Amino acid sequence: MSKSKGAKEPSYGEAATRLEEILSRIEEGKVDIDELSGLVAEAAGLVALCRGKIHAAEIQVKTITEQLERDLSAEVDGEPDGDVDQNIRY
Length: 90
Prior knowledge:
The chain has helices at residues 12-27, 33-76. The N and C termini lie far apart (66 Å). Helix 1 runs antiparallel to helix 2 (33-76). The chain is rod-shaped, with a radius of gyration of 24 Å. The chain is mostly helical. The longest helix has 44 residues, at 33-76. The chain contains 2 helices and no strands. Helices cover 67% and strands 0% of the residues. 4% of the residues are buried.
């Protein structure tokens, strides 16, 4: 995974696809021994990138779900949400 200055970081999907390509080449024996260490280093960088993206997504999901739980708890505890007229009778 060589990066030139200003190169855009690959998306998770792009990184996963590249990892699959590298793995396929290695498994099929299509890699020259001189090229192998470079591909393994690239794969290691891609794995680290994917792990970082997964971790960031986990944090975002946790933050969002915690906020939703707080909002729901506040509604259940009887706090008006500001959109309901408390004086309406049916």
